[in-house]
Write a structure and sequence with these properties.
Layout (H helix, E strand, L loop, with lengths): L2 H21 L8 H18 L2 H15 L6 H18 L14 H11 L4 H49 L8 H52 L4 H9 L4 H30 L1
Length: about 280
């Protein structure tokens, strides 16, 4: 579960409801017909605006928004540098034994292509095509939530117009004009809430996660191509560091030196045991 999403929704709606309680009875803000107009109209019109495949992908997009997804760019960089060391020391075919231990399907596919001896241009084409289809799926979701964000206030305004028309029909009953006007404005309130507290944040969250995922996949492509061209591990590491923000590059170097020192100690220990 993405804690930031849950906390953000809780604070946003919590603040809103506290404001409602402090301004008077919360019952005056509840109107089922207004909710039906805004929610039903937004969902219906958004379905009209996109194709069926985008609608089918919406549950998956919601899962991605709510799911905890932290990009471990440093971990992936260390993983690729280790593969570069293995390829340099034992040959690219030695990576075959690592395939069963790779959890990320994209990295596994990239290493499999390396082991299979696929031509460099074809490796890049295949992996970049994967990213293109990923972008299409995610952009469809981002576009859907942006459409909903634009439609919700419009249907709120539509509900207000309906309420005002109904109110004008009651001009002969002045005591009912105030409540009728309040109900008419509630519809606009619902539209603004859905747009600014749900759909726009969802679109931005999905956009951020999409950018993180694409960045890591581009890092994998660069790492695999560098290994395939026979670069030494330090060169692979330097290339991959360019994908990290400056604040993490020094930290990555320290982690790398620490891992090398640990590996040297373990290797020395194994050598001593063999000598004994």
């Amino acid at each position: 579960m993405d804690v930031a999403t849950v906390v953000g929704l809780a604070i946003t709606f919590g603040t809103f409801f506290v404001g409602l309680f402090m301004s008077g009875s919360i019952g005056q803000y509840i109107d089922v017909p207004s909710l039906v107009i805004v929610l039903g109209g937004t969902v219906g019109a958004s379905i009209l605006a996109v194709d069926l495949s985008t609608i089918k992908a919406v549950p998956g997009m919601l899962k991605l928004i709510l799911r905890k997804y932290k990009v471990d760019a440093m971990g992936i960089m260390a993983q690729l540098v280790r593969y570069a060391e293995m390829a340099r020391r034992e040959g690219i075919l030695s990576l075959d034994k690592e395939l069963k231990n790779i959890e990320d399907p994209f990295i596994q596919k990239a290493v499999q292509l390396l082991v299979d001896g696929t031509e460099p241009e074809l490796i890049r084409d295949i992996l970049e095509t994967e990213i293109i289809f990923l972008e299409q799926r995610h952009q469809g979701g981002i576009r859907y939530f942006n459409i909903c964000a634009a439609l919700a206030p419009a249907f709120g305004f539509l509900g207000t117009l309906i309420g005002l028309i109904a109110m004008l029909a009651k001009l002969s009953e002045p005591e009912k004009l105030g409540p009728a006007m309040a109900v008419a404005l509630v519809t606009t309130l619902y539209g603004v809430i859905l747009s600014n507290m749900v759909f726009i944040p969802f679109a931005e969250k999905l956009k951020g996660k999409h950018e993180d995922e694409v960045l890591v996949k581009e890092m994998v492509i660069e790492g695999v191509m560098s290994i395939q061209s026979g670069d030494n591990p330090r060169m692979v590491e330097e290339k991959l560091k360019t994908f990290l923000p400056p604040s993490l590059r020094e930290e990555a170097s320290k982690a790398r030196e620490k891992a090398k020192a640990k590996a040297a100690v373990e290797e020395a220990g194994e050598g001593a045991l063999r000598g004994a």
